Amino acid sequence: MKTPRILMCPPDYYDIEYEINPWMSRARGAAPERARQQWRTLHDTLVQLGVVVELMTPQPGLPDLVFTANAGLIFGNRFFSSRFAHPERQRETPHFDGWFAEHGFNVESLPAGVYFEGAGDALFCGAILYAGYRIRSHAAGHIHLGNVLQRMVLPVELVDKRFYHLDTCFCPLAPGEAIYFPGAFDRYGRTVIEKHIPKLIAVVEKEAERFACNAVVVGKQVIVNAGSDQLAADLRAAGYECLAVELDEFIKAGGSAKCLTLRLDGEDAADWGA
Amino acid sequence: MPKAKSFVEEIELQGHIIDSLLLPKVLDEILTRGGSYVIKEIKLGKRQVDPSRARIEIKADAHEQLNDILRAVHEHGAVSTTPRDCEYELADMNGAFPEHFYSTTNYRTQVRIAKDWIDVDDQEMDCGIVIDIPLAGRASDGLRGPSLARPANEPRARCIAMVHVKKGDPIVVGHQGVRVLPAETTARQSLFEFMSSAVSSEKPKGVTVREIAATMKRTKAAGEKILAVLGPAVVHTGSVEHICELIKLGFLDVLFAGNALATHDIEQALYGTSLGVWLDRGLPAEEGHEHHLRAINTIRRLGGIQNAVDKSILKSGIMYECIQHKIPFVLAGSIRDDGPLPEVVTDVLVAQDLMREKIKGVGFCLMTATMLHSIATGNLLPAAVKVACVDINPATVTKLADRGSHQTVGVVTDAEPFLRALVMELKSPLAV
Question: Does the pLDDT of residue A145 top 70, yes or no?
């Protein structure tokens, strides 16, 4: 079995410095020490599961660099760099691109004018790339990716601003298996997911609001934010082990376990083919 | 009611549009926003990984509604198939287009300027398109201008005949940013929508006459004009009274003809003959062959048809009724004309321009017994104007269609029985 590799960025400069989603409130702010502890717990949990964690150098003035999932989409040794919708996050791109170029990836970009927020909005489940659009990414960008990768891409529309990225409401577990929060999608998107993924675990709204879908999957282990009891039970019934990590400091910025990580060697649920 | 001009844009949707339900979603978006669509082309991917592609024409009743639909479907990944404006060059000389000019058809045409599709005015086949944009928006020195700045005033485009080109006119070149919107073919409800121009003397005339009468009534009800293009056989066959009746009933608003129609009409009014033949007896009059020339001479001596009516010399006939009812007419000359009558326009370019002027607002055209003037008029009419061509010679209708006037319904018959039946139908309250 391959050794999982995940990119993370320590939260040295993490804070709520702007408001670009409904979760963020500058008035509330983040508690830096508590955030560092939570991030460290997540990091150590991954290492204990046998994950090789690569670290980026944090940058002052880029509080969200900690959310490496949004850097781009990885496919083999190709890195499709994000085109962030918000100027606040566009400044992260040179740092992500630099890191991937230095680490042997071919850095590629989508056409100008097309927004695309990487693994935040594009997740393989089996051979199909599921792609969230409307709030942060453009459907046209996903369609373009499908052409470039020669893979089936199914754009699904996100209709609830609280779940602004696909990885906040959808998490592939294995080919043909995923957890999702149905309320985040429109009728078409729900139908597409339900038609193409045979084994689905629906997350209840109360737990979805605590980012239960923003989980990191390593083999049969699923790391989720603490307090997702119903999902934990459902995962156990499906043969998975649920590891709870308190990450509420990051939920203040609209992110949780998945957002803090970027799988470099392909998610376990992804089937990239030959 | 004149049909509201719809606003149209073509989009393309590509990717796994069936599996992702993006295609039905886009179609739903169009419908729920009050638009309509036509899938012009769809190509399905053969394998699961292969993308599919659909080309969809979106129609809306208003510009803002179309933009609303486009904004909505762009969110789902649909893109416009014509992302570029039309190109133009400044004419480098008078009376000729730049090379590679766009040559027009008689179908409704639009050009894309500053991202907006604009209807081409004065639609006419075999012309070029000149765009009227304020100086600020023009590219300089005849360079192609892909980035037309949006001018303060709305830009306009219109068909222009080669002969009218002035040096410096911005003339559309190439096919980019130009689109032709053929007539609707979906709702086939009336004669003019299902009858092709295939001509036969063996079609049921009664139904045809009824449909033509109904179309004329609808044209008038829509506030549009009826144009008649008449040849001298209308007089020879004894149909003058039917045409006069059409004028009196208000079903004739503009008349195009040549010297011959007017001459023989006046000959009949003054002498009772047409080409020297008594119209009431069908026998040749003694010295009757001189009548038409004497009629022309009389009118020329009086200074014109209008004067002849004013002086009560001309007291009946088609031309008399036209003067009395203030029906505008254009008499276009030809090389074989006797006289001609003073009102005949002998410069064909001037005659063409007069005809262009007079066809504005015409919704229906009845062509009877003239090949020359029918084809000349067919060249000028936009395809949206319905045409009925009545001729004893099938070749007239065929020629008309072969020259691009596909909106023509042909009736192969003698003019007189047709016109008699038409007047009867128009008087009948049932034909609507």
Answer: yes
Domain boundary among B181, B208, B236: B181
Is B51 touching A (CB cutoff 8 A)? yes
Task: Write out pLDDT tens, residues B347-374.
Answer: 999 999 999 999 999 999 999 999 999 9
What is the DSSP-derived secondary structure letter of residue B257?
Answer: E
Decide if A165 is catalytic.
Answer: yes
Distance from C-alpha of A107 to C-alpha of A75, rounded to nearest angstrom: 11
Give the residue from chain B lying closest to A141, CA to CA: B77
Contact A141, A120 (CB under 8 A): no
pLDDT digits (tens, 9 = 90+) for B308-343: 999 999 999 999 999 999 999 999 999 999 999 999
Pairing state between β B329-332 and B254-258: parallel
| Res B4: pLDDT | 53
Indicate if B236 and B383 belong to the same structural domain.
yes
A28: CB partners within 8 A, 6+ apart = A16, A252
Give the count of domains, chain A: 1
Are residue B294 and residue B416 in the same domain, yes or no?
yes
Using CB atoms, pick whichever of B19, B75, B77 lies closest to residue A143: B77
Q: What is the mean pLDDT of residues A171-184?
A: 97
Residue of chain A whose alpha carbon sits nearest to that of B78: A140
Average pLDDT rounded to a whole number, residues A192-221: 96
CATH for B72: 3.30.70.2690
Interface size between A and B, measured as CB pairs under 8 A: 57
Cβ-defined contact of B51 to A146 (cutoff 8 Å) = yes
Active site residue A142: no
Q: Does residue B346 surpass a pLDDT of 80?
A: yes
Taking the C-alpha atoms of residue A181 and residue A203, their distance in angstroms, rounded to an integer, is 5
Nearest beta carbon to residue A151 from set B14, B20, B49 = B49
DSSP H or E run through A158: none
Look at residue A53 and tell me if it is in a domain.
yes
Range of the domain at A30: 5-263
Q: Are residues B200 and B139 in the same domain?
A: no
The verdict on residue A70 lying in a domain is yes
DSSP letter at A103? T
- Does A152 contact B79 at a Cβ distance shorter than 8 Å? no
Residue B372 lies in a domain: yes
Partner residue facing A147 (CB), from B22, B24, B51: B51
Residue ending a domain, among B48, B80, B112, is: B80
Rounded Cα distance, B106 and B188, in Å: 20
Residue A270, domain member (yes or no): no
| Beta strand pairing call for B116-121 and B87-90 | unpaired
- The domain containing residue B56 runs over which residues? 7-80
